[in-house]
Amino acid sequence: MDLLAHLPALQVIVPMLSAPLIVLLQPRGLAWAGATAVALLSFAIAVSLTLAVLDGQTIEYAMGGWPAPYGIALSVDAFSALMLLVVTGASTAALLAAKPSIDKQIELGRQPLFYSAWLLVLSGLVGIVVAADAFNIFVFMEISSLASYILIAGGPDRRALPAVFKYLIMGTIGATFYLIGVGLIYMMTGTLNLADMEARIGDVVEINPVLVAAGFITIGLALKAAVFPLHVWVPNAYTHAPHMVTVFLAACATKVSLYVLIRFDYMVFQSKLVDHDMQFAMFAMPLAILGILVASAVAMFEGHLKRLLASSSVAQIGYILLGASLVSVIGLSASATHLFNHALAKGGLFLAVACLAYQYKDLRLDQLGGASTRMPWTCAAFVVCGLSLIGVPGTAGFISKWLLINAALQSGPWGWGLVAIILISSLMAVVYIWRIVEALYFNDPVEDDVLTSSEAPLQLLLITGLVAILNIYFGIFPQVPLELANSAAALLMEGAK
Amino acid sequence: MEFEMLSPALILLIASVLIGLVKGHARTAVILLAPLMTLWAIWQVPDGVQTTVKFLSYYIEPVEGSPLRRLFATVFAIMVFVGGLYAFRIAKWYELAAAFAYAAGAIGVCFAGDLITMFLYWELMAIFSTIVVWCGGTPAARAAGIRYAIMHLLGGVILKVGIEGVVVGTGSIQIQPMLATDFATWMILIGILINAAAPFVSSWLSDAYPESSPTGSVFLSAFTTKTAVLALILLFPGESVLIGLGLFMVMYGIIYALLENDVRRILAYSIVNQVGFMVVAVGIGTEMALNGAAAHAFAHIVYKALLFMSAGVVIYRTGKNKCIELGGLFRTMPITCVCGIIGALAISSFPLTSGFTTKSMISQAAVDMNLMWVYMGLTAASAGVFLHAGIKFPWFVFFQKDSGLRPKDAPWNMSVAMIIFASICILLGVFPELLYGLLPYPVNYQPYSIGKVLFYLQLLLFSGLAFFVLLPMMKRTMTISLDTDWLWRRAAYSLLQIVERALGTISAMLSIQKKRIQNLLQAMAVRYLGQPHTADSKERSIFARSWTVGTTALWIAGLLSAYVLLYYL
After folding, report:
1. In this protein, which residues make up the domain named NADH:quinone oxidoreductase/Mrp antiporter transmembrane (chain B) (predicted)?
2. Please, is B512 exposed, middle or buried when counting C-beta atoms within 10 Å of its C-beta (0-12, 13-18, 19+)?
3. What ipTM does the predicted assembly reach?
4. Which of A154, A496, B291, B313 has an alpha carbon 20 to 30 Å from B355's alpha carbon atom?
5. Is some CB atom of chain A closer than 8 A to the CB atom of B556?
6. pLDDT (tens digit, 9 = 90+) per residue, B129-165?
7. Contact call for residues A233 and A167 (beta carbons, < 8 A)
8. For an interface test with A, which of B5, B16, B54, B56 has the most A Cβ atoms less than 10 Å from its Cβ?
9. Nearest Cα residue to A273 out of A207, A188, A215, A219
10. B546, A365: Cβ pair inside 8 Å?
């Protein structure tokens, strides 16, 4: 049996079927070990899928042997491979580091349930990525959303409950909008399979239902992707979630929705609606720009570490959307690269936050004085990831900012304006990262206790350091994500024709 | 990976990490050996592009050799060695580690064959030089470091835009001579000029360098401005804008150095002045002028570091840095004094010092091109340099009145470092061929003609005379108090007053408006964005708040309609 052929299915099924089994692992620590093992396995699957995709294959899989338009189809191309790496990588890194932090935040008895929900989120997210039909994307979206509500509310912070309620309402609106859009498309084309839809939508005579469907799908997914001004659920949800959950979700959850949004728009609507590229650009670009500027400005003034980084995430989603809204190969490739690089940078930052949270109860900036003496390694990792977020040369962030500026310059007369916006927001990022660095390195400690080195547990610290090093590694050797992003962009633009 | 592919800069980068990892004698060994290894590696780089690496979609050239690049890299490596020798006993390990990484950036720029590599190392320099400034350890150093960082980040951003513009416009990432003709090339020029401390942004230099530690300022004095000069030579030779800018820098440096009281700030202003000479030379752009710029950069790094070293020893031993508080130190600090004087003579281009054999090349280049007013400006400036750096610095620190201070002379390592640099100053003055042989173009220039030597001696003697004639007046002012150094400004006073009055009216008008605008902006920021350190319990400002579900629903409805309507536009 050729295992490779079945990998797309295994990618989803392994975490999904392990989730209920994890609940049974009651003895201390076993649930964590099980979940981590499953995450590692998923990551390995994602890596081998990526290797296959890098060879130039697109891997199609028909569940149960039923061929594509009738059965459930899965497919993995360059874009999905990149996304799979991000999702499984984030989940694996977070789980590997998670134990000390989770032990502190979640009581032992509930841990198996917690890890089981984690795996459900994982399987939902990878399901969205590999699913080749619109309805299954919806199903996986619900799986991942429902499970992530549990994760966010699972911590000791009671403020997570109202936050998660708001997230639930908005997530449901988003999913419903998406479903309405898919329903309209199904009505017009009679198919749910994306590839089939792309083929059949050319025959549709009546434009209006398709247009409205595009509207519903775009808005619904934008809501889930936290595109400004539909981002309001993000700061509270990220801030009050258990720290490790924030690492996981901030690195990949909203990006998966953005992935579907970009894919749907380019594969299905661009080819049908006349001048849709203009419409998409005119709709998405102002939102992206506003998101970048406003969210960065809010982050500059924010006083709570996690909330600050959450605001910055909204701005970064803006970058990804901006690249996509240029409707060019290089723009899309910048988007996809930034998807990957931002996951690295923000994942690393939130990991460092989890380390800090191990010693500091209150994560407001003015409470973090003296952290650099207490936790030198954590702070160093934080600075490296922060530099990457800003886009300093030699870090991963530089690559995507460079591509984005390049794409903006090539986008025509408005290019210089976009470049100015990207640069201004980079300087804003300098300001908000600087405020954190200032708190960590220069402020006096609030309590006058003795400042001895009391680092976070080794397990947590090692992974944080590793992610920081990866930020530098992918800044110097960006080939793999870049190659994936380039072929993804080429694929999407081809779909748009 | 083959050995030739690697930039010599990597040795220093590794050394910088090692300095953090090892302790004691091993650390000393790293500090002293790594620069020598770098120096060796620099001379192993043959001419031409050594290697190309694919990065993004470009073929970058991390290592490209040429006589000019090697010359700058050589003096940087010597600088790291002597600076390390000078600093290793008193500087903190993280200051040295940052200084080494900073130097690695400078050497990386020297060998960068393309704009992208250059930019990578450029930013490396910016980051680690900021850390060196912070290592001053005082609140003033911290504040100056922030201002320094902002200026360099801005410069980096401008440079990046320029580079991307050129890359997109021409499709080439090669470092090749260009002229500032369009937006992108102007951006590159401005980005480089910010590092060269060109007019209107030069205050970062005199602001930050004096606040760093005595050892830190030695390193800072060498790299940033001189890599900018190298970049100008490589990218903008013959760009005539630079002549005017350079002359402005020359004059600016002199006037402010004369007005200054802080020892290291005098030296910092004189960096601006000396870099001005080089910028003028790049602007002239002939082979002679570019030779002059390169040679002068080499000589300047050595004597300026020497001056900063002797100033550093004084500050280290006495803890004082104002001219007024010092004086008479020659009694107990003979080595520091002699080395300081040699540095001072070199910077004033006294015959038989390196300053004479290099700076006169630039003047000669101006003459050759019939740029009389440039020549006059440079000559007048030479007299001014002697006044502020050549006499003022050693006189007030080591002679004048007896301040009563009896500090010990420099520790052995600092003495050795200073003696090495002082010898180089003399050596290049007596045997200029040593340096001329390394220059990018063949040198057909004889510095020691009788006419020239006599001319310079007269110039120096008369400006020296002027200094001592004015001295009684200066002495009186010093007895008044530390901060009322207003008499110092007598010479420039009337001129400044006119300018000040004109500026004063404008700034008064602006400040009223500024207050109003500031208040308005602040109120808006608080209302929409929030204040730093908002407590969790307080209601956040409009954009930072978590809006109600209803508000979001309205947005959703609005966006959906907008989406559909946009299609019909």
Report:
1. 112-377
2. exposed
3. 0.84
4. B313
5. yes
6. 999 999 888 888 888 888 888 888 888 889 998 998 8
7. yes
8. B56
9. A207
10. no
